[in-house]
Amino acid sequence: MERVALRGGRVVDPSQDVDDLYDIFIMGGRIASIKPSEEKAPVGEGWLEYDCKGLVVAPGFVDLHTHLREPGEEYKETIRTGTLAAATGGFTTILCMANTTPPNDCEALTRLIKKKAAEEGTVKVHPVGAVTRGLLGRELTDMAELKEAGCVAVSDDGRAVMNTSVMRRALEYAKGLELTLISHCEDLHLKEDGVMNEGFEATRLGLKGIPAQAESIMIAREIELCELTCSRVHIAHVSTRRGVQLIRDAKRRGVNITAEVTPHHLLLTDTQVGYDTDFKMNPPLRSREDVEALREALKDGTIDCIATDHAPHSSIEKDVEFDMAKDGVVGLETAFGVLMRLVHQGVFTLKELVGFLSTQPAGVMGLKCGSLSVGSPADIVVIDTEREWTVEPEAFRSLGRNTPFKGWTLKGKVVKTLVDGRVVHEEE
Amino acid sequence: MRLKRKDILAIEELDRDELEMILSSAQSFKEVSERDIKKVPTLRGRTIINLFYEPSTRTRTAFEIAGKRMSADVINISASVSSVKKGETLKDTAKNLEAMRPDCIVVRHCSAGTAHMLAGLLSCSVINAGDGAHEHPTQALLDIFTIRERLGRVEGLKVLIVGDILHSRVARSNIWGLRNLGAEVTVCGPPTMIPPHIERLGCSVAYHVDDAIADADVIMMLRIQLERQRATLFPSLREYARCWGLSAERLKKAKKDVLIMHPGPVNRGVELSPEVVDGPWSVILEQVTNGVAVRMALFYLLLGDIKED
Fold this sequence. Notes:
The complex is a heterodimer.
Chain A: E1 3-13, E2 18-27, E3 30-36, E4 47-51, E5 56-59, E6 61-66, H1 79-88, E7 91-96, H2 107-120, E8 124-129, H3 143-149, E9 153-154, H4 164-177, E10 180-183, H5 188-191, E11 196-197, H6 200-205, E12 209-210, H7 213-229, E13 233-235, H8 241-252, E14 257-261, H9 263-267, H10 288-299, E15 305-306, H11 315-318, H12 335-344, H13 350-365, E16 380-390, E17 409-419, E18 422-426
Chain B: H1 16-30, E1 47-52, H2 58-69, E2 73-78, H3 90-98, E3 104-109, H4 114-121, E4 125-131, H5 137-151, E5 158-162, H6 169-180, E6 184-188, E7 204-206, H7 209-213, E8 218-221, H8 237-244, H9 248-251, E9 259-261, H10 274-277, H11 284-303
Parallel strand pairs in B: 1-2, 1-3, 3-4, 5-6, 5-8, 6-7, 8-9
């Protein structure tokens, strides 16, 4: 049995309200014990010891929202490259969305993804099944079979379920299976063919806008449906102040709703778009006011966690006219570094950030990870919070190069990632 | 004399001195078109490519004539927009044209930002001949040239722009240029056609033409572009003409010597009644004449012999 000790690191584990110097001992892929570093607890022969002095040791990150593109669009990303990118960014568990080609709307696809992930993947992959067959918004998928095959949630991410009656039935049916429904909130009629946030920037650039209400109207709908059906919903990539207010009010009323926000919506605004297709994603970058509201919502618990919405595309989709470019940016490898900016600026504490990236998303999906408590799987990140690095898309493990953070100099990097006690990524 | 820039992409980017330089240069080139032999050797040996992804008569012809009157070789390409993976991409087309060593590419495209995209890709000059709903800089230059020629100034004038401001690159370019030169601009149309926060460009907004025309020195009417108004921005052409169209009757409320402008092509009976198009207020054909002079000036200021400096 492999035995690993992480010595002398500053252990930050929101799940146990811990932020102090500890040694972590791993046996059989699980956390065997945690002891204050000052005890200098001896280990026997055969232990692999890592010196973590000056580094932060935290639960491995959990990303509720990635696109791995396999099967069907392997030129954009594969399960192998996507999970390598995840390990590089400190993510030890990821959920992959159903909008592959063909979509993950049946048991066989889910099993294929699980099998590939087991054979070629670096981190733990949990597929998200489709809500409706073919992501067409009409007929429900065989959700019980999807769950049995390994899906931990269902979502038609990328395309809203526009028929309210279908969504009602989906929420009800998923409730019976204890499957969480992740909703991509976007009123497609109101969006029309919009390509960026509606506002002065869109007017100036002559680009068609997507109003904030295209999101908030659907968030309001999901809240109403949750109350109607006594079910629960997780709102994907909230981007607007109006959406935040609706979720906050719903939570106060006791509605069973959770929500996530992406790093780019926490850091960027529509004034940075220009005509750069690496700043084109859905939902679009919003206003400064929205960014402030999203940060506030994370701090007060209205938004539960951060998810990357890692959406790799190739130059075929991105090196074109802005109108015609596909939506999406990669995020797995840059998430922690760019979010550390907010820690350095004093917006969040490091412990809060670790919580948003690990303990809280694990909690949202009821996953047995996101904690360094004894008995937990030894999914761990080791972080150098002082390490400076520059975002160079050419160096990404992901096949996607479509990042709005190109050239950013960041302070804070994941230097080691462990999955079940095994080192799957190490810097230098 | 030469502009210290490679491309003309947007009026937003031009400062007042540059606008003045272009306008005064256009003034001197206008005379060439009045000659018996309408040609000067200024751009001999230069190659200009008109790359048009949208149909155009006026703009493309004006660019072509402008280039030819300056002895440049002008090539016209009418291309259709190809979707991703189907046909050649804009980038590939542009790089292939560049490989033939043109000095300037004039581009019109239905997507905003395409001129910027080409300017970043190519080492030759790029002139924006209209990109989506973004800008149409040469149209604004010829409009401002016409206003100045007719009224002797731009500063302090009240200019009213009526129509589909939301989709209008002509409106955006004119607002930037007219504001920069000190005019007051009001945009007018049904609220469905007024883009959000347009007043941050320095103009005011009116919904009722009758209120807005009274003190206007210039009224620019925009074409109702039926092909762009897929959405229900207004109920019918009949109602649009009634509420926002200019008729001789409605013009009784305007200043006697108001200038009526239109970038063309006119929908007679929709935004302008025939008696207004052909009436004494109209400077629509002068705009077209001046369009050649303005484009000659731009070619000269971008491609002219640098040794003259």
